Amino acid sequence: MVSGYEVDLAAISVAEENIFYNYQQEEPAQVVFHLSNGNSLTLFFPEPGACLLLPDAQGRGFSSPTTFRNQFNCPIGFVPILGPVEQHEPLFEKEAARLALYNYRAARNFRNIWHHYPTHFDEFREVLKQTWPGMDIEPPEVDMSTG
User: Fold this and answer.
1) Which residue range is the domain that position 136 belongs to?
2) Which of 2, 37, 61, 65 is in the most buried spot, having the most CB atoms within 10 Å?
3) pTM of whole model > 0.70?
4) How far apart are CA 24 and CA 7, in angstroms?
5) Using H for helix, E for strand and C for coil, what is the string for 38-51?
6) Which helix (H) or strand (E) holds 96?
7) Poorest-confidence range of 56-60, 66-70, 96-100, 130-134?
8) 20, 57, 33, 130 alpha-carbon torsion, rounded to 10°
9) What is the rounded distance in angstroms from the CA atom of residue 106 to the CA atom of residue 81?
10) Residue 80 pLDDT > 60
């Protein structure tokens, strides 16, 4: 038994049907994040629709928000699910792109989102280049030749 925190999967818009280990649902899936200070954070999926965040501070306590922050001082951000980009993605209105932004189907609207909300594209591009060596991306361009 370990202490953990329930994670509401509905609040973060993930495709729960895609969470499994080794293409099997009999064994719980988990994602472990190893921090540079030796601590770790584990997302543990014991059954469909359930997720627990299990912090491990190598035996050190973290009973308050301050001590937790000291033991697990790492930025956590939202990363859209990687998936297929629509080959011939039609240009949508800005509001449709906004609604797709925090949906787990965001990859299907990848170009629309960056076309209508380009503010942080350069930051996204740099993170992509740093975390995926050899990969680069250009801002989306609208092809008006096909009507």
Assistant:
1) 94-146
2) 37
3) no
4) 22
5) CCEEEEEECCCCCC
6) helix 94-101
7) 96-100
8) 170
9) 7
10) no
Which residues make Cβ contacts (< 8 Å) with residue 56, sequence separation at least 6?
A: 2, 39, 40, 41, 42
Q: What angle do CA 37, 19, 23 make, to 5 degrees?
A: 110
Residue 83 domain flag:
no
Extract the tokens encoding 14.
Answer: 């993930």
Neighbours of 119 (CB within 10 A): 8
Q: How many domains does the chain have?
A: 2
CA distance 34 to 80: 21
C-alpha 36: how far from chain center: 20
Q: Where are the beta strands (DSSP E) in 26-72?
A: 29-34, 40-45, 52-56
d(CA 110, CA 85): 7
Cβ proximity of 107 and 85 under 8 Å: yes
> Is residue 57 domain-shared with residue 13, that is, in the same domain?
yes
Strand partners, 56: 40
